[in-house]
Amino acid sequence: MRDEPIAFIDLKAQQDRLRGPIEAAMARVLDHGQYIMGPEVAALEDQLAAFCGARHAITCANGTDALVLVLMAWGIGPGDAVFVPSFTFIATAEAAALVGATPVFVDVLPDTFNLDPASLDAAIDAAVQAGLTPRAVIPVDLFGQPADHPAIAAIAAAHGLLVLDDAAQGFGGALNDRAVGTFGHATATSFFPAKPLGCYGDGGAVFTDDDALAETLRSLRVHGKGGDKYDNVRIGQNSRLDTLQAAILIEKLAVFADEIVARQRVADRYAAALGTVTRTPVVTPGARSAWAQYTLVVEDRAALVAGCRDAGVPTQVYYPIPLHRQSGYAQYPQAPGGCPVSDHLAGHVVSLPMHPYLSPAAQDRVIAAVRHAVARR
Ligand SMILES: *Cc1c(COP(=O)(O)O)cnc(C)c1O
Fold first, then answer.
1. Which of 166, 189, 241 to mutate to test the pocket of ligand 1 (most atoms within 8 A of CB)?
2. Is 152 exposed, middle or buried (0-12, 13-18, 19+ CB in 10 A)?
């Protein structure tokens, strides 16, 4: 008898749990008919802000827009340097390029995969020498783990940089009892379905304690509106979160803290069973990961991927090409000495199935497949 296939991220299991409340929430939106900026949007924003302890949550159309809107609000553009890790999803650098600024690629740390403060420091000096104005840094909470926010904040303060945390994967995490969403001058997140907190389409949000920034963002997401929507005081965008998605997210947020605990249980089990045979994720002391991904670093990735595939265990490679090697981004500068850690990780990382509803039996199959593939070498 063939085993059930294992899902890499199982949205269906979550839906089974929440189907009733989500259908009821969607029906309420169909009844009131306020599909754009309906009451669920403001309700969700209040709940998101309360969840992480930020003063403001401003929702928008997707996580990429969340990054772009903040850079727009800060007036970042041509001639400005925005420092981004090279080992991340493309949107982190894309946001800087979209506003006309220069993304500067910074290397990451080999253990946490997050922005390397020393590489950032060196990249700032190099950017100044190249005639750019250092304006902002976008640390990423990659795979769910918070970046080294205290170290990055200190460097940013010394150089007058604004900090925009890219928490598309990290919302739900924490560092030293501070929730992700409260680091930096602003935080961007994504509600893409596969993110730790995902909706059933595209969505995003910005968190900030800065009242003036929050007001500008609320204007920018509706075509730069002023007092009313036909008074346009700045050039903005159309970037609102749909009311239906907000209604869905309210139901998902209600179980989100519980899901983070469930993800941690899976991570603990993986670490206990795999830590002796391969390199498992390193979690910074004092950090809570949102476990968007569970990512190994292996010598022979092809063998591991093939072994898992033979055992019916799906794997994914995030990310096979670091951003400084993307052909669309070849014109942008890198930290002095390049990004060798990002290069190495791109060749050796592999992510295992990770979601809150992964059963112990499925976890055991993943564990057995990985142990077998690693032992065969
Ligand atoms: C998913 C993601 C984004 C972009 O989010 P979208 O909602 O897909 O636009 C940005 N940064 C990182 C690190 C991501 O993983």
1. 166
2. buried
Nearest CA to ligand 1 atom 7: 63
Q: Where are the beta strands (DSSP E) in the chain?
A: 56-60, 80-85, 102-106, 133-137, 162-166, 174-175, 178-179, 186-190, 204-208, 287-288, 294-297, 349-352
114 Cβ closer than 6 Å to some ligand 1 atom: no
What DSSP designation does 329 have? G
| Alpha carbons 295 and 202: distance in angstroms, whole number | 25
> Letter for the amino acid at 175?
L
Kindly give the distance from the C-alpha atom of residue 63 to the centroid of ligand 1, in angstroms, as a whole number. 5
Write down the residue that tokens 């296939």 correspond to: 5
Judged against a pLDDT cut of 90, whether residue 72 lies above it is answered with yes
pLDDT tens, residue by residue, 324-350 = 999 999 999 999 999 999 999 999 999
What is the full DSSP assignment across 205-239?
A: EEEES-HHHHHHHHHHTBTTB-SSTT-B-S---B-
d(CA 334, CA 86): 9
pLDDT digits (tens, 9 = 90+) for 7-41: 998 899 999 999 999 999 999 999 999 999 999 99
92: Cβ below 6 Å to ligand 1?
Answer: yes
pLDDT at 375: 83
CA pair distance 37, 59, nearest whole angstrom? 10
**Ligand 1: which atom is nearest the Cα of residue 140?**
13
Q: Is the pLDDT of residue 4 over 80?
A: no
DSSP characters over 66-87: HHHHHHHHTT--TTEEEEEESS
Would you say 211 and 55 are in contact if contact means Cβ atoms under 8 Å apart? yes
- Region of 139 (left: φ > 0; alpha: ψ -120 to 50; beta: rest) is beta
Amino acid at 211: D
- Report, as an integer, the average pLDDT of 256-283: 97
CB 174 within 8 A of CB 141: no
| Structure-block tokens of residue 355 | 């979601």
